[in-house]
Amino acid sequence: MAPDRLDTTFAALADPTRRAILARLASGEASVMELAEPFAMTQPAISKHLKVLERAGLISRGRDAQRRPCRIEARPLAEADEWLEGYRQFWEDSFQRLDALLEEMKTRKKKRRHIRR
Amino acid sequence: MAPDRLDTTFAALADPTRRAILARLASGEASVMELAEPFAMTQPAISKHLKVLERAGLISRGRDAQRRPCRIEARPLAEADEWLEGYRQFWEDSFQRLDALLEEMKTRKKKRRHIRR
To answer: How confident is the model over B3-56, as pLDDT tens digits?
Structure first.
């Protein structure tokens, strides 16, 4: 997994329109025209975002010259996920610490109630 | 999960030095000086990267005025992972298709060998 590949993947994902385009393509191929409609964006504006996604390998374009339908490509997402997996331990640890803290607070609250009675 | 939070997280991760800083912090807290050393970068250059990571909530800085040790923060990574999880089906599907294709190619190869005999 080349580091620059992760650079372009993460940079491409750092935009809400591009993430929304991927979400739309997750339900099937779409042409630029079909993509531009729900976003209330011009086709050139959408085309710019598509170029970023295509350069990052996150989408591919069909050969049909008229429609050139866009399709989501999973590999860069899988690579980004693989990188994040290396840090899973950290959030699992911190969520466990949070759970333990909440449990401790509940126990203390119960004890206090018991004392008041 | 606010969309702009994902924007800053993915943008912060789109840089090899920043990802390397997180990898270093995964093995424990470190001061700017300790971080600058292995990267052969000046402290101001490292500080710039740390500011991006801090703004994205990916690291926090200790209160010790002298060292201000950096610590990795898991929550934005967990959120990025959660977003990617929504697409897991895509790479699992495409890897399964690849497996099926390889299996088919193997079977064809065997058949061809059989015919040659």
So the answer is: 689 999 999 999 999 999 999 999 999 999 999 988 888 999 999 999 999 999
Specify whether the CB–CB gap between B103 and B94 falls below 8 A: no
Q: What is the pTM of this model?
A: 0.81
Q: Name residue A115's amino acid.
A: I
* Chain B nearest-CA residue for A82: B81
The C-alpha of B115 sits at a distance from chain A's nearest C-alpha, in angstroms, of: 37
Q: Report pLDDT digits (tens) over A42-55.
A: 999 999 999 999 99
Reported ipTM: the value is: 0.80
**Is the Cβ of B21 closer than 8 Å to some Cβ of chain A?**
no
Helix, strand, coil shares, percent, chain B, to 5: 70, 5, 25
Q: Does B75 touch chain A (CB under 8 A)?
A: yes
What is the enclosing helix (H) or strand (E) of B85? helix B75-85
Instruction: Identify the DSSP state of B58.
Output: S
Strands (E), B1-117: 59-61, 70-72
Separation between Cα atoms, residue A15 and residue B14, nearest integer Å: 12
Judge whether A4 is closer than 8 Å to chain B, CB to CB.
Answer: yes
